[in-house]
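Friendly challenge for the regulars: who can give me the structure tokens for this chain first? No prize, just bragging rights.
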Amino acid sequence: MDGFRSFPATPAHPTRKYWAINPKRPKREWKPLEDRSCTDLPWFLLFTLFLVGMCGICGFTIMTGGAARLVFGYDSYGNTCGQRNEPIEGVRLSGLDHTDRKFVFFLDPCNIDIIQRKIKSMALCVSQCPTEELATYHDLKRFAMINGSELCSYELPGHKYPQLPERFEKCPKLPVPESKALPVFNRCTPVDISCYAKFAEAVVTFVSDNSMLNRLIAGVAASKEIIVGLCLLALVLSMILMVIIRYISAVLVWILTALVVLGSLGGTSVLWWLYIDYRMTMNETMTKDLRETEEPIDDMKTIKDHAQGLLIYAVSATVFTGILLLLMLFMRKRVALTIALFHVAGKVFIHLPLLALQPFYTFLALSLFWVYWIMVLLFLGTTGNPEKNEDTGLVEFRLTGALQYMTWYHAVGLIWISEFILACQQMTVAGAVVTYYFTRDKTKLPVTPILSSVLRLVRYHLGTVAKGSFIITLVKIPRLILMYIHNQLKGKENACARCMLKTCICCLWCLEKCLNYLNQNAYAATAINSTNFCTSARDAFMILVENALRVATINTVGDFVLFLGKILIVTCTAFAGVLALNYQRDYTEWVLPLIIVCLFAFLVAHCFLSIFEIVVDVLFLCFAIDTKYNNGTPGREFYMDKALMEFVENSRRSMAMEERGRSKRARPKEDVELTEVKAMAPGTSSA
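First reply, four minutes later:
Bragging rights claimed.
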């Protein structure tokens, strides 16, 4: 509350304001500058060089034949199918001309290494895949003579297949299944994929031996239409919630509060009612069966399991509802602040409707990059020097020496560039919101503030985004390494080591979250004053520290309300799921469909509300800056919206009333003490 009245009235205050930002530019103000300059140019050059290195890895895989070997395939002697090859030293049958042999054929396509996830079979380049099942070596000979496609090793003549003693080792395993070539990768794949059942053999065995898991999977299969319908319902509810946030933000908090309370209480009540109804039905059925048969019921344990499962759902819902009500009880006094903040955020979306599409653009950019990254990773798997496997006698391509570091470089690129794309979204949203906030006349906003923000980012601030994303990468990489070590040592390390690993992972995760929040505010400061990353981070950090109570209140309540919105969508979807699945009396089969639906509902709600959360966080910083350097007097007018002005004035009046109340409560006590002194004074003198 101190932040609402700590407005220095000295004439030197503006000078001190500018000095806190940049002592070299004393006339600069906290508002978007028209005259901008490039920020963190060395980091932009460093990131550009890193991108060149990523493209260089892709070019290296293409130039050395790794891409061609992946796409066109190669045989067990190192020859790429569909082209002329150079001989490999020490490898026989290498350097063959396979211009007419464009398809890869495996002698034993069903010999699959489940652990290594590859086919342990000799591969040959053939001119045509077998179009029918070949049951004998005479069929292999006939196929070779008619189609000119020899399916045995290159040194064996096709017309002698039935007589050659080497046919058992160097010819395909009989019977040869009918195959078709994959559309792009030119691999002969059996039409009947039953031989690939080895991949699922362990899973099938586990499912068949585990009756509970079998029932859960059966429940998902039986409820697939309901699951799809509930997922669509979650999508519709998320869109409706965005409409509510956009148009009626003033009453959103109260609506959310009431609906979440009613939804939680209603869902809990329904679960308890279903449990009681099921117990009563179960008792009546058991009593009737015992009277008729006078023998114990065989499926007694199954019935009790159903009742126990429903009881667990009801108790869990009750605990969740209790915790939620307690949280809302403690947060009730901060609802007014949330209403004002969401009102302004709703206006931002009214003036900048394209903000709602930013997550989709970011997802599209991430998807395209991930596809490229996976493609290059596959290229790397077939790139390198040819090496003959002594156990199998097959030729494999492996990266050796310094080339091995390309894989690590490529892995770092996945993290850094992904964080860079996410940071670009934050900078774009921050630039648009800052432009909106610090424009007094909203009719003078740019025609496309989002596009203007993107152009400013590309022209001036890519270096700042690169530096901020690199800092996140430096924290994320050690955390991922520790997580990998923890998974590899699971069950082998002692309790102390396991605790230390988990502690380090947790600390790095917390540090990453804090840096993400600071980076987001640093991007907003850069969007305002066009300063480099370190300066912007320092300025934003000082602003947030000076307004810690106010910013913490806004941040806590805002995130809590957004969380309530996500919970509302999940609760309504789960409640609809309970009603839709009620026809299935086997309540133990509810759990997996409900988990799938609730997870999807939460992800959809998060996608829709994440952009709103970024807008709210940027408004936090703008609001804190506005209240620090302006007090509403002529020449120092607020930039904030009227809703926030009303909140500031109401907070001041509330604080003043509390101070007067404390003064009034203190005065009677002082008057009583003064009266007692005066009453004692005559008696003392007379004595």
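The two ends are 53 Å apart (CA to CA). The first strand starts at residue 103 and ends at 106. Your move, everyone else.
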